[in-house]
Design goal:
Elements: H1 2-19, H2 22-40, E1 46-49, E2 54-55, E3 61-65, E4 68-73, E5 76-85, E6 91-100, E7 105-107, E8 123-127, E9 135-138, E10 146-148, E11 152-161, E12 172-182, E13 198-206, H3 210-234
Antiparallel strand pairs: 1-5, 2-5, 3-4, 3-8, 5-11, 6-7, 6-10, 6-12, 8-9, 12-13
Length: about 240
């Protein structure tokens, strides 16, 4: 029965197409081209967040300029964001932020314009091993807003610096941003502005137990410093 229905529908479609005039075919073809052009030029991006946020060792993330260290970020956490814009149009992004989901209060997020220790030619590095022999340069964003160029790949190392205040109630770090495209079905419930109707993307990372781990790291560092000082005095 279903087969007969399908055959009947297909026959009806073929019969309709055969009755079309050349002008109708041209109009239909023009409409299809217009629809394809609209689809091809639509604003869309491919977004990929790192699965986890890295808890960097104390003092392992630092700013340097011409071989001179300008400063370190003590309680640094590093996440990676990759965005591909395959469309032929530039797309703006904005409202890039890190925050505590319990309070919706922003956490310090390192950009080139946000921290005074970043001089004009400064770069951010992350030490990868204990003997300080290997390190990687981090690609931090210029600002918390910007342009995703057409047909481009963009990668950002997002450095969140937690305060040394042990009283802070925090066990997750949320990071999110928006792009300049309206989207009414899903809105950013944490938005601090009226720009809730724009497309947004975010990731929530667990940092449960970070206070205890940081305390342990501080104790270890002090022990190493005391041992180094004792060795120096013996010499």
């Amino acid at each position: 029965m279903l087969k007969l229905v399908l055959i009947s529908i297909i026959s009806s479609i073929i019969s309709f197409l055969l009755k079309l005039k050349i002008s109708d075919w041209l109009s239909t073809f023009a409409i299809l081209i217009s629809l394809y052009t609209l689809w091809k030029n639509r604003k869309h991006v491919s977004i990929d967040w790192s699965d986890n946020i890295e808890e960097a060792e104390i003092g392992s993330v630092f700013s340097a300029n011409n071989g001179q260290i300008n400063g370190t970020y003590e309680y640094a956490y590093i996440a990676t964001l990759s965005v591909i814009n395959p469309s032929p149009n530039d797309i703006g992004f904005f409202d890039l932020r890190a925050f505590n989901p319990k309070t919706n209060i922003n956490l310090p997020l390192v950009t080139r314009r946000a921290f005074p220790m970043l001089q004009e030619d400064s770069k951010i590095y992350h030490i990868l091993d204990e003997d300080n022999s290997n390190y990687a340069q981090l690609d931090i964003p210029e600002r918390k807003f910007g342009i995703l160029k057409a047909n481009s790949f963009n990668r950002f190392d997002l450095i969140v610096v937690l305060p040394e205040d042990e009283k802070i109630d925090l066990d997750r770090i949320n990071i999110s941003f928006k792009i300049s495209k309206y989207f009414f079905l899903k809105r950013d419930s944490f938005a601090l502005t009226k720009r809730k109707k724009f497309t947004f993307s975010g990731k929530s990372y667990s940092v449960t137990g970070w206070k205890e781990r940081r305390k342990s790291q501080v104790v270890t560092l002090r022990s190493q410093e005391e041992s180094s000082e004792n060795n120096s005095s013996k010499e």
